[in-house]
Amino acid sequence: MQASGRPTIKDVAKAAGVSPTTVSHALNGKGVVRRETVERIERIAADVGYRPSAIARGLQKSRLGLLALVIRPFNTLDTYLPTGVDYFLRMAGAASLAAMEHGYSLMLVDDPTKPGTPLSARVADAYIVTEPFENDPVLTYLAEERVPFVTVGTDPARRDAFPAIDADSQDQTALVLDHLVEAGAGRIGFVIGTDRNSWTADSYECYAAWCVEHDQDPLLYTAPESLGEQVGPGALDFFFGPEGGSGPASGGPAPDAIYCLTGRHAAGVNAEAARRGIRVPEQLLIAGASGALQNMTSRPSVTVLDLHPEELAKHAVDVAVALAEHRPVPDIDRTVVPSLIVRESTTRA
Amino acid sequence: MQASGRPTIKDVAKAAGVSPTTVSHALNGKGVVRRETVERIERIAADVGYRPSAIARGLQKSRLGLLALVIRPFNTLDTYLPTGVDYFLRMAGAASLAAMEHGYSLMLVDDPTKPGTPLSARVADAYIVTEPFENDPVLTYLAEERVPFVTVGTDPARRDAFPAIDADSQDQTALVLDHLVEAGAGRIGFVIGTDRNSWTADSYECYAAWCVEHDQDPLLYTAPESLGEQVGPGALDFFFGPEGGSGPASGGPAPDAIYCLTGRHAAGVNAEAARRGIRVPEQLLIAGASGALQNMTSRPSVTVLDLHPEELAKHAVDVAVALAEHRPVPDIDRTVVPSLIVRESTTRA
DNA sequence: CTGAAAGCGCTTACAG
DNA sequence: CTGAAAGCGCTTACAG
Fold first, then answer.
1. Three-state SS for B219?
2. Per-residue confidence (pLDDT) for residue A82, from 0 to 100
3. Which helix (H) or strand (E) holds A236?
4. Is A317 in a helix, a strand, or coil?
5. In 3D, which of B60, B82, B62 has the Cα closest to residue B71?
6. Would you give the DSSP letter of residue A225?
7. Residue B11 phi, psi dihedral angles, 5° rounding
8. CA of B65 vs chain A CAs: smallest distance (Å)
9. Measuring from the CA of residue A32 to each C1', which nucleotide is nearest?
């Protein structure tokens, strides 16, 4: 009997009058065991309530069937979970289900490089790291420890260094900007976050390139992701000037469309515009990438991208499992194409 | 060297010219080892990049330092994650952090009784099961397997049978109903879900008792949680009669306040009221328990409860860890008191 | 203060 | 077709 009181393979062997080896063979379909012996052993195993120990099995396979998900943006937010950003719940949920389909389970771990990280955080066979930062120490650590991992988004300082799943950030940005133009925009301001991940970097680059192409000066307002909806007043001061005050801090003419990278920023800009009596979408178009829920239910509702976190998760799990099993990673196209969800904020009557 | 290529305790022992026993003692502060020996071993361990194997350690401790979280309501929703219900993300995130503080990691697992559940889903030392159903097979399974677990909410058919953390559903309901009366309600309709968990059952019971006390006939509309915002038209038909049609399906007079157990139901009722031109809060008060994000940003915004999933998670982790370590569960009050977030939908000018 | 030995529960060559 | 033995990487009485 196990320390915990559960029967072991020995108990089954004894009850069946065979050796542990035979029980192992019978129960795992390995080796050659007579059919009736197999059946008898299976029956007895069920009778005594035998459950193989995943730990013991893990010891010589040196694999436990565990995947770890590290949601990197949470680590800049400290213990704070941003409300409304269900992107990550969708991702974690989908990853958990995808893992199960491969016979794996998913653990949710914090930054494993933090001092005091429990040993158990390191039992995963492979890691999935979402939105790694520039020169992310987590990736460095995993690479040093030779723990297999895949990223969702890439470390902007080490592109192509590690296996990655990507939501094509270039396409994303173009998709939204083009839509804004079609919806009537002439001059597009951009509100961007401060996290140094590939999503932010690529989106900025695409915006800059787009500006050159469209002969517009970039009109960029930067604010921490964690500021969330609070970004509204600052952003509008920047783009339109303080209320009843002088002109825009930006220097140039005011934009007629604002694109916010995060959904919470978009919600904040939208709310502040309403407060100031700027009519959306008539006077100002607003769109967000990576929509938050707030954008769905606000008045007006706000056009955003759906980045399809479920699909990203599924691809990431596929790769992580292949890596964990030291199998070659299937070489298929894993680019996830975002879709535009057009809402009131960019729909003029 | 480990199969994976990482150094083992033997490698360190060899390099230090001592036995594995001494390395183990030195690194874990067990037994008695001379200080300088300890220091030398620590240095060498760091040099060769030694990391103890959590699996090997887990084998004789028969504990791995892993907690499993089963979010039961997800299992009625199939692979579908309800948008806007960030209750569960807050819960999972807080549980993950609380686990780390105890030296544990958190796994997210689906129904472990499902056929095809990976072995790895069973390596957890203890389980946390949120909102178990009536006679929940997951609890039965865990109890049979003698795996320690704690529930958040209780199995309504087996109250007090298992350790549980509770958000006091009675208090919750009374809190909202009393608030609605203060806000001007005379007759309160109730929209409730179909999941057979203690939260739903207790809330109903409290509503029924409240009706008796306040001399009102219960005015109850039941709809599946998964219907979400779509519940609006059906609910309003029930309470007010179909548009331009006959009277309320409910039979009695129409309510002047509606309390919805789920935030998504509240959002649906709120939206449908707006569509029909019923003015909220002037003609109709609306409130929800367990708010979703939609309620925060809708027009009008909707009064809801904050059930404090973070606190529930923290308590659940405390208990789960105690159980995993076969320690007595600290006997402190774990009732989490919800707070009312009053918003436009119940605030008359 | 240090080490040889047994053991955690399983799997896997290998020998019969 | 079946089993004895060794081993996965660690810990823990126990003996020196």
1. coil
2. 61
3. helix A231-240
4. helix
5. B82
6. G
7. -60, -40
8. 5
9. D1
Tokens found for residue B3: 């199969």
Q: How far apart are CA A317 and CA A331, in angstroms?
A: 14
Is B76 in CB contact (< 8 Å) with chain A?
no
| Cα–Cα distance for residue pair B188/B281, rounded to 1 Å | 13
Residue A272 pLDDT greater than 90, yes or no: yes
β-strands A105-108, B105-108 pairing: antiparallel
Model confidence at B79, pLDDT cuts 50, 70, 90, reads very low
pLDDT at A160 over 60: yes
**CB distance A191 to A176 below 8 Å:** no
**Which of residues 130 through 169 in chain B touch A, CB cutoff 8 A?**
144-146
Distance between CA atoms of B318 and B47, rounded to whole angstroms? 36
Residues of A in contact with B62 (CB under 8 A): 2-4, 53, 55
CB-based contact B93 A110, cutoff 8 Å: no
**Is the predicted pLDDT of residue B4 greater than 70, yes or no?**
no
Closest approach of A209 to chain B, Cα-based (Å): 34
For residue B83, the SS3 value is: coil
Question: Helix, strand, or coil here: A115?
Answer: coil
Q: Which of A271, A246, A261, A292 is nearest to A86 (CA)?
A: A292
Measure, in angstroms, how far nucleotide C5 C1' is from residue A257 CA: 76
Distance of alpha carbon B89 from alpha carbon A292, whole angstroms: 14
d(CA B234, CA B232): 6
| Chain B interface test: which of A55, A86, A296 (most B C-beta within 10 Å) | A55
- Report all structural domains of chain A as residue ranges with CATH numbers, in order of start: 9-52 (1.10.260.40), 66-167+310-336 (3.40.50.2300), 169-307+340-346 (3.40.50.2300)
Q: State how far the alpha carbon of A181 is from the alpha carbons of A186, A281, A348, B41, B88, in Å.
A: 7, 13, 12, 66, 38
A299: left (phi over 0), alpha (psi -120 to 50) or beta: beta
Contact A267, B297 (CB under 8 A): yes
The residues that bridge with A164 in the sheet, in sequence order, are: A151
Residue A278 has a CB neighbour count (10 Å cut-off) of: 18
Distance (Å, whole) CA A132 – CA B198: 41
B115 to chain A, any CB pair closer than 8 A? The answer is: no
CA B65 – C1' C12 distance (Å)?
Answer: 28
Give the pLDDT confidence of A2-27 residue by residue, as tens digits.
445 688 998 898 888 888 899 999 88
Residue pair A163/A231 in contact by the 8 Å Cβ criterion: no
* Burial of B233 per CB tally in 10 Å (0-12, 13-18, 19+): middle
In this prediction, residue B82 has a pLDDT band, given cuts at 50, 70 and 90, of: low
At A311, is the secondary structure helix, strand, or coil?
A: helix
Closest residue on chain B to A52 (Cα) = B119
What is the reported pTM?
0.86
Residue B181, exposed/middle/buried by CB under 10 A (0-12, 13-18, 19+)? middle
* Chain B: residue whose CA lies nearest to A90: B81
Number of H helices, E strands in chain B: 13, 11
Rounded to an integer, the average pLDDT of B114-126 is 85
